[in-house]
Amino acid sequence: MDKPTYLIEFETMLLGRHSLNAHLRRPDHLERSAYLVLRRLRIEGPMSIGELSEAFGLDTSTVHRQTAAMLKAGLVERIPDPDGGMARKFRITDEGERRVLADRDYNINALDRILGGWSEEDVRTFAAYLERFNTDLEAREARPWPRPSRTEQQS
Questions:
Q1: Which residue ranges does the chain devote to CATH 1.10.10.10?
Q2: Which of 2, 40, 123, 141 yields a CA-CA distance of 20 to 30 A from 107?
Q3: How many CB atoms lie within 10 A of CB 100?
Q4: End-to-end distance of the chain based on CA atoms, in angstroms?
Q5: What is the pLDDT of residue 148?
Q6: Mapped to the 3 state alphabet, what secondary structure does 10-70 carry?
Q7: pTM for the whole thing?
Q8: In this structure, are residues 56 and 18 in contact, taking their beta carbons and an 8 Å threshold?
Q9: pLDDT of residue 1 exceeding 80
Q10: pLDDT (tens digit, 9 = 90+) per residue, 6-26?
Q11: Topology (CATH level 3) of domain 28-101
Q12: Can you name the residues that pair with 90 across neighbouring β-strands?
């Protein structure tokens, strides 16, 4: 097939098999689901099971299992709703912050190595297309993912 979407489908299929931290040997490497939840909490602040379930498009029982494991590992803690609501919320702990930043830094360093031969313009263009692709997917699913501020990206 010569359709460009055929090529995109094939390349995204291949991309899905790669992991930036596949060779990460740190004993405190985060599971993918924990990494995603912690990144979301870091950007958005405390969230309830229901809010996380909606944000990820997952059944509450799945989110409950994930957050229970994260609670046990000391990555999140349950707090009363800061806005006075009835549902308790999950907040990232100092340990969760340390570990998510360690994994994020590892991923960024891996990308720096992979993209080392690319021009800065090519990297910026690729990033812009990825953001556009993701935001179009998010709009279609009506589940926008908050983007980190420039300060969040650098901290």
A1: 28-101
A2: 141
A3: 21
A4: 44
A5: 82
A6: HHHHHHHHCCCCCCCCCCCCCCHHHHHHHHHHHHHCCECHHHHHHHHCCCHHHHHHHHHHH
A7: 0.85
A8: no
A9: no
A10: 888 888 888 777 766 655 556
A11: Arc Repressor Mutant, subunit A (1.10.10)
A12: 47, 78
Distance from C-alpha of 38 to C-alpha of 77, rounded to nearest angstrom? 11
Q: Is the CA virtual torsion 134, 139, 145, 148 positive or negative?
A: positive
Residue type present at position 148 = P
**How far is the C-alpha of 70 from the C-alpha of 90, rounded, in Å?**
10
Cα separation of 152 and 155, whole Å?
A: 5
pLDDT by residue (tens digit) across 38-78? 999 999 999 999 999 999 999 999 999 999 999 999 999 99
Q: What is the pLDDT of residue 128?
A: 94
Mention every residue, 6+ apart, whose C-beta is less than 8 A from residue 26.
102, 106
**Beta-carbon count within 10 A of 40 CB:** 19
What are the tokens at 123?
């990297």
Q: Quick one: tokens of 93?
A: 């702990």
Average pLDDT, the chain: 88
